[in-house]
Amino acid sequence: MSYSAAEPQLVGGDDARRQNALSLVFFLLTAVALLMRFSITPEIMNSMVEYSTLEGATWEKVHFGSYALFALLPFALFSRPIVLRGHEITLFRTFVRYSALLIGLIGFMVVTGRAGSSGFVLDTYLVAGAAGLIMLSQNAEARRALGDVTLIMLLVSALIGIFEAVTQTRVLPYPLTEDVFRPTGLTEHPLAFGAMCATGIGFATLARWPLWLRLMAAFVLFIGCAASGARLALLIAGMQIVLLLLFVPWTQLSARHERQAKTIVLVMTLVAGAALISLMFAAGLLSRFGDTLFDENFMARITVYEVFGYATPRELLMGKDLSAVLEIVNTKLNLPYIESSVVVVVFLFGIPLALFFVWVVGRMMYQLLRNAPVAGKLATLTFMLAVLSNNALSSKTAMFCIVVVLLIAYQRSPPAPARLG
User: Fold this and answer.
1) Is the pLDDT of residue 366 over 90?
2) In total, how many domains does the chain have?
3) How confident is the model at residue 7 (pLDDT cuts 50, 70, 90)?
4) 11 belongs to a structural domain
5) CA nearest 388: which of 410, 358, 363?
6) Host H or E run for residue 82
7) 77-86, 135-144, 303-312: which is most confident
8) Is the separation of the CB atoms in 384 and 193 below 8 Å?
9) Consecutive H or E run containing 354
10) Which residue range is the domain that position 126 belongs to?
11) Is residue 8 part of a domain?
12) The whole model's pTM is what?
């Protein structure tokens, strides 16, 4: 592949129709593959294969949606020329480098006998690299449309979750028994449901939908977040809305009129928010806020870090079998799970490789955020704050891929085109 600053040549007649048909096919295939990865939960996968259990063949440990995206990737990259503009070229190179480094990391884990623990790297992070390259292989309009499809999926999930909360009935299977009913929507866990509803609020403001529809989408996502029972996610979602009002520029107004309008809207939002919170309390959607935030669940996420005190320096540097770590957490700390991605990543890789892994993922996210609108950056910050309080980023989840897809879909408009191919 080579880069060229020349304008892409226009094709006409049969060639144009063929290119348009091919682009439409790739768009539809990408949408189907993404929706498969985003909406088929681990429990549904377990009903067909041994996806998240300790049994089954190696091929069963990869999500069907991931297989679809990996299969689509070579056709998306090599079946036709790719036109990139400005920062998109940097993003493309970043995703190639990111994917290559993760493949090398997975290969190292296989060679060192930790293939079974590398599943989340492949099914959460490497698949996000494949999705990013597939997104960049399509034009800006197709990317934005795929972002809209993803947002609509989040809205459907929010509506399903609200229905579950009101009726106390689950739409999709959920393996855990909890003292308080919490909906899951199209996600694998109530905390994941709350985090994705909160994250979707910022991205909903970036869609090219009528203003009333964007406001309605943000409202539905906020109610879904409240229904999830994810208290931290709901608090962050509320702060995100205030920050969106304060820092997202209203370009159609002068600076003075923008300040006046934002002040009025902010006051109205706070008043309406107070009324909405009262209504949600009365409806029982905020029942988990009746107790303090610093309850048993919160303390469990702090206590789990004591497991480092049971590790030797060599185990911290080289890693330790996660089943042995879980046994320590169960027997010494009296906790049922390892509720920390930091703990999982450190013991999975060892500190040096863990830092390398964080650098690889962080560098990719930095490049994505460089050209993201303010709302996209706030949405990503919301996502990170919500999921770092649990073990979501060290499990097989679609959440990270969803954020990557939305960030690519709603990048700021690039300048003059360059052609790749």
Assistant:
1) yes
2) 1
3) very low
4) no
5) 358
6) strand 82-85
7) 135-144
8) no
9) helix 351-370
10) 16-420
11) no
12) 0.88
